[in-house]
Amino acid sequence: MSQPLMPMATAVWLIDNTSLTFKQIARFCGLHDLEVQGIADGTVGQSIAGIDPTANGQLTWAEVRRCQDDPSASLVLSKGAKPEQTRTKGPRYTPVSKRQDKPDAIAWLLRHHPELSDTQISRLVGTTKPTIGAIRERSHWNIANIRAQDPVALGLCKQMELDEAVQKAAIRAQKNAPAQPESAPAEDAADSGADVENPADDSAASDL
Predict the structure, then answer these.
(1) Alpha carbons 120 and 129: distance in angstroms, whole number
(2) Superkingdom of the source (predicted)?
(3) Per residue, what are the HEC states of the chain?
(4) What's the CA gap between 126 and 111, in Å, rounded?
(5) Domain limits, the chain
């Protein structure tokens, strides 16, 4: 067996619970890259519930972490692997019914909070950086139908989570802002070469 059982459901889970690239997930599940991107965008597999390949022994978290650290690496199927309960940091799980709302939420965040990093948006909405980039560059295949909507209103994240992300982004921007040069002290008139009135001239003028 060269690919996991129920590859589409496995791909759904990997997208929602890891930061693996589309290509890595596509290779592992025997899918096309565009199919995996469609799942991430919420246009493919909307009714498919994700299946955890680490829970059914087809993949280990160690293997997931290895490939997350090296985007060029390929996942290796391991039927006898023992599942671990630790979850790596990656996009949050998004209910099937809300996946189609992700592009709208991304568009809203890019418009109203451009200070947020792609990583922050990814964690808030549960999406991937390539999808964020495509919407930012307006190269997303469904860009004509994307309507910016507040992710909090859509139920994709909580207001407290959004506020916290915005606050962190503001602190980061402040730290990275170039230091403003201090204004140079005013130079003495004599040093600056400025014209200085000569009292002798004034007295001479008054004698005329």
Answers:
(1) 10
(2) Bacteria
(3) CCCCCCHHHHHHHHHHHCCCCHHHHHHHHCCCHHHHHHHHHCCCCCCCCCCCCCCCCCCCHHHHHHHHHCCCCCCCCCCCCCCCCCCCCCCCCCCHHHHHHHHHHHHHHHHHCCCCCHHHHHHHHCCCHHHHHHHHCCCCCCHHHCCCCCHHHHCCCCHHHHHHHHHHHHHHHHHHCCCCCCCCCCCCHHHHCCCCCCHHHHHHHHHC
(4) 18
(5) 7-69, 96-176
Helix axes 118-125 and 129-136, enclosed angle (nearest 10): 110
Question: What pLDDT digit, counting tens, does each position of 23-46 carry?
Answer: 999 999 988 888 888 888 777 766
Tokens of 131: 């999808």
* CA-based nearest residue to 133, from 41, 43, 68, 64: 41
Locus of tokens 């890595």 = 24
Q: Give residue-wise pLDDT tens across range 47-73.
A: 677 888 888 888 888 899 999 999 999
The Cα–Cα gap between 107 and 138 comes to 10
Cα 178 to the chain's mean position, in Å?
23
What is the C-alpha to C-alpha distance for residues 70 and 79, in angstroms, rounded to an integer?
22
